[in-house]
Write a structure and sequence with these properties.
alpha/beta; five-stranded mixed β-sheet; globular; two-stranded antiparallel ribbon; 152 residues
Length: 152
């Protein structure tokens, strides 16, 4: 398997190259140790000193002061078939970068749907099947661990 190449770059004054390098190291460990054995997908992450000069073929994660979407700390999508992510700077930016990285590796376009039987949450809080109901679920990676109470 050929690993995806991801670069993490800052467009925020609050995140410097040293911070990016530390987080890139942690993300590489996370991919190799925790992610690749389960998802059978690989990637490498490098800290990029200048966000304006990213080598072709490298999927960028940009750290910005505002992602421009109310309530969101980050998101990923494609522009001209080139995956990229925006992550809002702040105390948990590394956690959001981890989440967006994993989702970007699994679903570069952010639109992978999986058909399945419908489910719902009952009034008692239990997950129940909805017989006969069919849904398409968006594949999401590591959403529970994205909570700010779980920083890396």
């Amino acid at each position: 398997m050929v690993p995806k190449r991801v670069g993490i770059a800052s467009r925020s004054q609050s995140v410097n190259l040293h911070d990016l390098a530390n987080v890139a190291g942690a993300l590489n460990l996370q991919i190799q140790r925790d992610f690749q054995p389960i998802w059978n997908m690989a990637a490498t992450v490098a800290a990029i000193p200048d966000p304006e000069f990213i080598e072709p073929g490298v999927w960028p994660i940009f750290i910005v002061d505002d992602v421009g979407t109310n309530g969101a700390l980050g998101f990923h999508l494609t522009e001209h078939q080139q995956p990229y992510a925006l992550v809002q700077s702040g105390p948990t930016w590394s956690l959001t970068a981890s989440h967006e990285l994993l989702e970007m590796i699994v679903d570069p376009s952010g639109n992978w749907l999986v058909p399945s039987t419908g489910i719902a949450v009952s009034a008692a809080g239990a997950v129940v099947d909805l017989p006969g109901a069919k849904f398409e679920y968006l594949v999401e990676v590591a959403d529970p661990s994205e909570a700010p109470t779980n920083p890396i």
